[in-house]
Specification:
single chain, 363 residues, alpha+beta, Aminopeptidase, 2 domains, 12-stranded mixed sheet, 9 helices, 30% helix, binds coenzyme A
Amino acid sequence: MTYAVRPRPRKVAGPRRGEVDRLGAVNEDPDIRPIDLLDPVQEPAARDWIEVHAAVQRELFGDRGSAWTLEEIRGFHRSPTGRRFALAAWSADRIVGALEVRMPTTDNLDLALVWLSVHPDHRKRGLGAALLREGESIAAAHGRGTLMGETEWAEGDTDEAEAFAARHGYAIGQTMIRSAMRLPADRAHLEALARSDDDYAVESFVDHIPEEWLDDRAVLQQRMSTDAPLDDLALEEEAWDAERVRESFARALESGRRFVESAARHLPTGRLVAFTTIAVSAGSPDLGYQQDTLVLREHRGHGLGLRLKAANALRVMDELPQVTSVRTWNAASNAHMLAVNRRLGYAVEGYSREWQKQTRGNE
Ligand SMILES: CC(C)(COP(=O)(O)OP(=O)(O)OC[C@H]1O[C@@H](n2cnc3c(N)ncnc32)[C@H](O)[C@@H]1OP(=O)(O)O)[C@@H](O)C(=O)NCCC(=O)NCCS
C-alpha cells in the first residue's frame, strides 16, 4: 500500500454513523487520513500529530512524560532500516488521534509496531478502534502477521488502556518497569562503583562514536536484541553491521539528540565487550534516556554493568550538567539490571506493557 503525498480525505469502511460495531463502539464515522511527516507542506499537521502523543504523555505522567520531537520522528521516517506510515484522525479541523505503524526491513520481517494515541478529550467514540483497524490493514497489506503495541501508566495508577488492548485481541508480551535516577548524584559513591583494577578498561565518547568502535558495537547491538529478556515477545534477532551503527548515530545526532556512551574494553583481546548509552533529546535537555546496556555473556560476573553505568553517569554529570534526571525502562523479569539500577539510586516511577497479536491463522 502506498499513500499519495498530498492525500485527500478518505472515509474508513465500517458501520454507518450511529451503528454499534462488533466491538460495542458507536461509530462516529471518523475522518482518518494518512499524513506524510516528511512533507514540509504538512508540517503544521505533523506538529499537531506529535502533540496528540504528547497530550497522552501529559495525561499519564504530568510534566514527566516522554516526548519525541518532530525532528526525531522525521529521522526515523528517513531511516533505511524500516518503513513507517502515519495516520491522523481529524475532528473538524483538528487532529485528535495519531497512529504510526513501523515495519522493520532488515530483520523481524513479520513484525509491525503500532503507536496509537487518542487525545484525552476525544475518547470513547471509536477513534482508537478505527485507527487501530487502519494500522492493522497496513500491516496486513505488507504481509506482517505479528503486531505489537505499548501501554503505559504511572506508579500508583492502573493501566487504563488494558481493556482496549485485550478487546482488540492483544495479549501481554512483556511488562516493563520505568524508573529514574536524579542527577547530579553523589560523585564519591559513583567513583567507588566505577573503579577497577582488572582486565577491563572503561572508554567513553560524547556524541560522536569513534570509527574504530563500529565493528565491535555492531556485535554488541545485535546481541542486545536477543540477550535482554524478551519474555513472551515474538521478536527475532536484529541484523547489525558497522554501517547500520554509524547511520543510526548520525541520523539521531542530526535530529538534535546527544549521546554519552561508555564501553568496556577487554585488554587481553582488545575488543569492546560491554556498553551503556544515555541519550538526551533537544526537546528535553534536562532529561537523559538510559538506552541499551549489555555485557557479553562470556564477560558477565565481573560487575561490568554496574561499573559502566556509574562511569557513564559521571560522564553525563561532567559533559551535560543540565541533565537533572535519567529515565530508564527494564523488563520486570530483568532482576540483574534492576538490582544494578537500585544500587545507582534509580526509583520506580511507572510501568509499561508490550502487547502483541498474531494475525496468522485468523485470516
Ligand atoms: C487506548 C486508546 C487509544 C483508546 O482510544 P479511544 O478512542 O477511546 O478508543 P475507542 O473509542 O475505540 O475504544 C475505547 C473504549 O470505548 C468504548 N467506546 C467506543 N465508543 C463508545 C461510545 N460511543 N460510547 C461509549 N463507549 C464507547 C469501546 O468499547 C472501548 O471500550 P474498552 O476500553 O473496554 O475496549 C486511548 O485511551 C489512548 O490514547 N490511551 C493512551 C495511549 C495508549 O495506551 N495507546 C496504546 C493502545 S494499545
